[in-house]
Amino acid sequence: MTSIEWYNTANVDEQKLGMKKRQLLIGSLFFLTSFFLAQSVVFEAAVPFSVPFWAIIRTKYKEYAKYVLFGGLIGCVFLGLGQVFILALQIVMYECIMRFRYWQLPQSIAVSLAVLLVQIMWQGVMYQGLPPVLVQFYVGCEAALALIMTLFMQVLFVNSHEWFTSHWTYEKLGSGLVVFAAMLTGMQAIVISYFSLPIFLLQLFICFGALVGSVPLATVIGAVLGTLIGVAKLSFTGMLSVATLTGLCAGMGARVGRFGVAIGSILPSVFFLFYDATLPLDSVYFTSIAVGSIVFLTIPNKYSEKVRDKLFPQREEILLARQNWLTEHVTFKLEHFQHFVQFMKELVFERFMTAPIEEAKEVSPMNTCLSCFRYDRCWGAQSNGMDKLMTDWFHMKGVGKDSGIHRVEEQIRYKCVKSTKIFEELETELYRERINGQYFHGKKMIALQLRDMSNHLNQLIAEMKEETISFVSVEKDITQRLKEAHIECFQLDVLSNKPGARKIVCALAPARVNWEEDTTLAERMILPILYDIFEEPFEIEKVVASDKPFRHIQVSFRSAISFEVEYDIYSMSKDATLYSGDSHALFQLHPGLFAILLSDGMGQSKEAQHESRKLIHLMRECLNYNMNPETAMHTLHYVMSLKQQDDMYATLDFALVDLQHGDLWSWKAGGMSTYILRGKEVLKVESNAAPVGFLSISAVEAEKRKLKAGDVILMHSDGLFSSVDDWDEQEEIFLANAQQVAGTTKTIQEKLTTIMQSFQSYYDIEDDCTVLMLEVTHVVPTWAVFRPVQHSMSNSS
């Protein structure tokens, strides 16, 4: 066994041991509670608390039912073996009533009926007939108290997860006080020397309530506990006044601190010691409250803070007010910066971005030509074509063809008598145009980047100005819908509410039957509810099982994409060499956006491959930093135009597929046409922009097309079509083969292979070639009742 395996095994064993300790601790608490409730006698005759406690624990905490059963039976032993037998019969009667298949009574009625029937039969047997009226009264009181106590326990003993997630309401607090008072009456016999356990707990509980909730909570605790304990014993009702005044004084002393609470809780007892001699304020009483006050002083603050948060949670209005203030404050600061960005954008963007694209103009005569005696012959009415030669020279310099440049220069030397000076002026003019081009595109790049920054700030401010309670209201709406569907979700968090990128985490109880999986409820019921609320599909991102602080599962939902893309790539190099000038990349920017990059470097050398790969890498980096595609294209052009290598450039065919809404956005810098096959229809996306690195590039416009399920997208480099054969004829044959194969039921890999084999049977591929094929289909949710069947679109005879 490796060290990692040993560590994992030890960690699992430690978790299991921790769970067993926690279960043993909770079981012990339930055992003691049942033990004391079984000894709690009301009106000195009725014992109404054991059966309600068994019924609640048996229903909500089944794994701890055995602790409650043993605790109740053992507690009844101190009241007599007859009471043990009565409790056993009442539990059996309750189980029979609840398991009766032909009617279903409420739990409180079933408990009360079980107590009543067993007591009637038991007392009838004991008195051999109708029992006395007083006994009948006690039986009725026991049944009524059992019904009331069941209702109180239903409020107090909620599901296990709600002990850690929900806040304590006043109803729950009152129910807890009633149950605690019943336990105190069952502890009356626990007196050790000068120490009384119920008096000690009463004092400790009042002091702790004063520390947590000051006067109101401490007074309520004292009044409720004093009243119930006094009524249960039918004597010493004066203790009601002592307990109430103790809570009042302890709460008033909370302003001073813990010592103020402790001292304030003892003063009423000292007062009543001299005021009313009939009260049982003896040495046992004072010793017990003194010990209770001392123990109270040792309780850590973290426990009181936790209880305070449960009883008096921060109001949502206060949190929302703080959030509003923070939103307004940050928005104010951002708006100041936004004004500066807006100023810079108007200074740069409005001046250079709105300038019209300059058309190609004719070359004007050089200065050398103006002073030359042959000016009229070269540039006059009987021109010998010098203007055309100079235009060709600029074009060949831009394209970078050495043979073409040499040919044009020879023609100029043949016709010009001052060719040396003319070439110097042409080089100077070309250099000036390059500098102007770099200057223009540098300003344009800055303008676009400022525009992106402005858009990001506008988006941030808009999100901050959105309704600050949107998450709260959405969570409430979802929670309400889940309650209406009887889905027990005790924790729900909306992490993101952006359309198309929503993320919701829901905490659920684990599966309760063997045939059900943990995701069954989420797939069959919650996903359709979310789809109905937000009108967009959702999917289960992950499911995490957790045992802390109790056993539950966390299901994470996120917006599901409406479309999905399958793709395949065909790539080959010229003469099967190691280096290809083509490079490509297909990747997801996020689950709803798919990016496609195809670049073709000039030539088939290692440098061409390096150029295209570099362009792909830089474009990916720009997109990963959320740069606008248009800004990224111009930034790359500017960066690539400053490279050291002469006459090196690369085309870039860039497309984004919006999988949420079914849109195709295309940017082309020297790229070939993109084809969208839709049945018998072919849509073409074209662009006249020059390759990246050409100084003549001035704008890269985006083309948008709406996609439908079943569309096939084809992108390719220029090496697919031969420069020798007719271009239109090659394109027609390629598209005809693609349409014939696209509608078949083959896999996309088989389709692309078939298309390329069929096309190469007509034409040979002589250059580096890359073909990208993508097929767009609908995403069908896993909870859908049916799935669409995709029929073949090929023609059948």
From TrEMBL:
Cite the entry's keywords alphabetically. Answer: Hydrolase, Membrane, Transmembrane, Transmembrane helix
* Limits of the PPM-type phosphatase domain: 564-776
Whether tRNA processing counts among this entry's keywords is: no
- Recorded superkingdom: Bacteria
Residue ranges annotated as transmembrane are 29-55, 67-93, 105-125, 137-157, 234-252, 259-277
Q: What is this protein called?
A: SpoIIE family protein phosphatase
Which InterPro entries does the entry mention? Answer: Bact_Sigma-Reg (IPR052016), PPM-type-like_dom_sf (IPR036457), PPM-type_phosphatase-like_dom (IPR001932), SpoIIE_N (IPR045768)
* SUPFAM superfamilies per record: PP2C-like
